[in-house]
Specification:
The complex is a heterodimer.
Chain A (H helix, E strand, L loop, with lengths): L8 H43 L4 H19 L2 H19 L13 H47 L4 H16 L3 E6 L5 E7 L7 H13 L3 E2 L10 E8 L2 E9 L8 H67 L6 H32 L8 E4 H12 L7 E5 L4 E6 L1 H17 L6 E9 L2 E8 L33 H11 L3 E6 L5 E8 L4 H4 E2 L4
Parallel strand pairs in A: 7-9
Antiparallel strand pairs in A: 1-2, 1-5, 3-4, 4-5, 6-8, 8-13, 9-10, 10-12, 11-12
Helix pairs in contact in A: 1-2, 1-3, 2-3, 2-4, 3-4, 4-5, 4-7, 5-7, 7-8, 8-11, 9-10, 10-11
Chain B lengths: L3 E5 L3 H13 L3 E5 L2 H11 L3 E5 L7 H11 L4 E6 L3 H10 L3 E5 L3 H24 L3 E4 L2 E4 L4 E4 L2 E3 L3 H12 L5 E2 H8 L7 H15 L10 E4 L3 E4 L3
Parallel strand pairs in B: 1-2, 1-3, 3-4, 4-5
Antiparallel strand pairs in B: 6-7, 7-8, 8-9, 10-12, 11-12
Classes of the chains: A alpha+beta, B alpha/beta.
Chain lengths: 532, 231
């Protein structure tokens, strides 16, 4: 009703009072006018009855009826009493002798008047009560209906995020106002926020009110003593573990919440709390399950690793002890061979430990990638120098594009990926096999390929290549046996960089492993041609 | 005269195998098992080279280098466990000459020692000689005329490319960290310069016709820096 924006609070208050008074006066005038119209109508009907020779009791009944109808219309005890008194006076004035005076000749009349007044006021009281009870019942039913609907929707939510959305939407529908639903996690960090309607809740003042509600667990904002100037009413969502969130109802349209609306909010807030707590529990349980799974995986890994470590260790210990105890009797050639074996097994162990270390880095959930601007060719050169040994009979070539490809990656980890891929290529192909490494930039991806023209991988093994501890049954040409860690580590590293890795057989024979890494957003930045 | 090598490592087995392999190669060898001893022996015995493990029990390896550099220019070869890249770079920036990652092969270690010692002897005499041309493989660089040839063909480098190449030649065999190169060429360390350095290196490598699978001249040390290959 007060559309104009008023600057000062006092002005606002006084104008509000003024309008309130005006309102009151107009209702009073309206009620009294209705009463007189009603009584005049009754008088008219009564005069008509009297002319037609009806009994006096009919006239009393007509007045009583008028009083009841009037009470039903205005629903006010005060006015119905007034109507009863006036009805008696009208009857006295118009229909008892002497007419048009408030005097009576017949001594029986005062009793009639009294009974008429009592009956009139009693029935009108009952009428008013009945009316208010009916409307109350209707409203209650309406409320239950909407409550039920909201609850059903709340029960259907699948995450705290959608809970915030659903509750904000439903409340907004219910109150036809802007609604904010804001949840907080256990550490008091704002978690899920959803605003239905216009978002004025982001203002500093509103945010303060919202946080005050969260911290004090009291209602704040418009209509309360805390932050009364704020544009919304805030109430806390309280669960078993304290305040879980805050609901804010924008009050720009209607000025204050009615007690019924308050009650509605008080009912719905705990429901939201219950659902939220349920969701939190569920999320926690899921997290625990993942943790348990991770723990199990770690145990499996340790078991498998320990087993794998034991094989080369047995060989090392055996060779060493043989030399120690038979030093004088064993020929130098055999000693040399044993020492070579020890060296080979130890370097295998070293590579294994390298992979395990990198794997634990990836596995701990929080992967600390040491991202740096690296040149693809440098990484490839480093990887090749790592696997290349003078004794190696494989032919390793690298194909680089004319442009320098820069990429932001963890250089050590990507080198490790290439070392593993090259190591596999060397280990699982016969001597003389050509192994080639290439890198290319296609649109927004940088594609690395390690391919060989060896025997390839059997179709049964191919889908399992990236599974941890899946050591393939293909023939091993090199000195090393697989650990089933290398490729799964490659996959983890590439995925941690937001890339993809896959493995194929190529025609006519051979294997190709390809992995793509996302290039930097700015393509002009990533490649700089030689001409510059 | 036999060069004197100081081996500083807290693992006795590592010290002993290093001692044996060094002595068979004609070096004299003394051992230190902690940082304090290292500092003491460096000043008292004046060794020709120090092989330093970064993980000494009493003093942090980088601190040992810093303290040593205040009083001596002794060449330092760092030995560290893998995964300690940052420490490695710090140590190189603090004044170490080269690094090896554990586990390393003895032949690699001996090669690095030879390079360091030879460079040391050249440095000692270069002040008199003032060598103006430099040759490695097919690559010839004339420092006075600022010209570069690959076999008989002259190659044209940009000023920055030439500066980088000259810097690498000046410290041949030594690992130069990214930070060191950038500060020497561009003057200050700005984040974008890392990219400039990569591009510069890439272009230089292309002009030198390097085989990407097996660089002949400029060797990359991932996460650390670059070095010029030794003959």
């Amino acid at each position: 009703m007060c559309k104009k924006k008023v600057n000062t609070v006092t002005k606002e208050a006084s104008s509000k009072k003024y309008f309130d008074n005006l309102n009151k006066i107009s209702t009073t005038i309206y009620n009294i006018a209705t009463m007189f119209v009603m009584l005049a109508l009754c008088t008219g009907i009564s005069i008509f009855f009297k002319r037609n020779g009806s009994l006096e009791s009919d006239i009393v009944m007509v007045y009583l009826m008028g009083i009841i109808v009037f009470s039903y219309l205005v629903s006010s005890y005060f006015y119905s009493f007034l109507a009863a008194v006036c009805g008696v006076l009208f009857y006295n004035f118009f229909f008892t002798e002497p007419y048009f005076t408030l005097q009576v000749y017949n001594p029986g009349y005062p009793v009639t008047f009294l009974i008429m007044f009592i009956v009139g006021s009693f029935i009108s009281t009952l009428t008013i009560r009945l009316k208010s009870q009916t409307s109350l019942a209707e409203e209650r039913e309406q409320r239950f209906k909407s409550l039920y609907q909201i609850e059903r929707k709340l029960l259907g939510v699948k995450s705290s995020e959608s809970l915030a959305k659903v509750s904000a939407e439903e409340l907004a529908k219910q109150f036809s106002a802007d609604v904010l639903v804001q949840f907080f996690d256990n550490s008091g960090q704002a978690q899920n926020r959803y605003v239905e309607g216009s978002d004025f809740f982001g203002d500093d003042k509103e945010r303060l009110a919202c946080y005050e509600t969260y911290h004090s667990a009291n209602c704040c904002g418009h209509g309360t003593t805390l932050f009364p100037k704020s544009k919304a009413y805030y109430l806390p969502v309280i669960g078993q573990g304290g305040v879980l969130g805050v609901i804010g109802i924008g009050l720009t349209k209607s000025l204050v919440l009615t007690p019924l609306q308050m009650k509605f909010l008080d009912t719905i807030a705990p429901q939201i709390a219950v659902v939220l707590e349920r969701e939190r529990l569920y999320e926690k349980q899921e997290e625990t399950q993942i943790q348990v799974q991770r723990e199990r995986l770690r145990t499996d890994m340790l078991r498998a690793i320990s087993h794998d470590l034991r094989t080369p260790l047995t060989s090392i210990m055996g060779s060493a002890s043989t030399i120690i105890y038979n030093f004088a009797t064993v020929s130098d050639d055999i000693k040399k061979e044993f020492l070579h074996n020890i060296y080979n097994d130890a370097s295998w162990l070293n590579e294994m430990v390298e992979n395990i270390l990198n794997m634990t880095r990836i596995d701990e959930g929080k992967i600390a990638l040491n991202l740096e601007q690296e040149a693809a060719e440098e990484i490839i050169a480093e990887a090749i120098s790592h696997v290349k040994k003078p004794t190696n009979k494989h032919i390793i070539t690298a194909k680089m594009p004319a442009d320098i490809i820069l990429l932001k990656v963890d250089g050590v980890l990507i080198t490790q990926v290439l070392v593993n891929l090259l190591g596999n290529a060397i280990n699982y192909t016969p001597e003389g096999t050509e192994i080639s490494v290439s890198v290319n930039k296609i649109e927004n991806e940088i594609i690395f390929e390690v391919s060989d023209n060896g025997p390839g991988i059997s179709e049964t093994d191919l889908p399992h290549m990236f599974e941890r501890f899946y050591s393939q049954h293909t023939k091993v040409y090199g000195t090393r046996h697989g650990t089933g860690l290398g490729l799964s580590l490659c996959k983890s590293i590439i995925e941690a960089h937001g890339g993809k890795i896959d493995i194929h057989n190529r025609e006519p024979h051979g294997t190709v492993v390809r992995f793509c890494l996302p290039a930097k957003e700015d393509p002009n930045d990533a490649t700089i041609s030689l001409s510059r | 005269m036999q060069p004197l090598v100081l081996v500083a490592d807290d693992e006795k087995s590592i010290r002993s195998f290093l001692k044996v392999s060094l002595e068979t190669q004609g070096y004299k060898c003394i051992e230190a098992d902690c940082g304090t001893n290292t500092l003491m022996l460096t000043t008292s015995c004046n060794p020709d080279i120090l092989i330093l493990d970064l993980g000494l029990p009493d003093i942090d390896g980088v601190d040992v280098i810093k303290q040593l550099r205040k009083v001596s220019q002794i060449p330092i070869l760092i030995v560290s466990a893998r995964g300690h890249d940052r420490e490695k770079v710090e140590a190189l920036d603090a004044g170490a000459d080269d690094y090896l990652t554990k586990p390393f092969s003895v032949s690699e270690l001996l090669a690095r020692i030879r390079v360091i010692l030879r460079r040391q002897s050249i440095l000692g005499s270069s002040e008199i000689q003032q060598e103006s041309t430099f040759k490695i493989g097919d690559l010839t660089v004339d420092a006075n005329k600022r010209r570069v040839w690959l076999a008989t063909e002259e190659i044209h480098l940009t000023p920055n490319e030439y500066k980088v190449l000259a810097l690498l030649i000046k410290h041949q065999g030594k690992v130069l960290t990214h930070k060191f190169i950038i500060e020497s060429i561009w003057g200050s360390m700005i984040a974008d310069d890392t990219q400039s350095l990569r591009v510069c290196m890439g272009n230089l490598r292309r002009k030198l016709k390097e085989d990407p699978a097996q660089p002949r001249y400029i060797i990359t040390e991932i996460g650390v820096g670059y070095r010029l290959a030794d003959d």
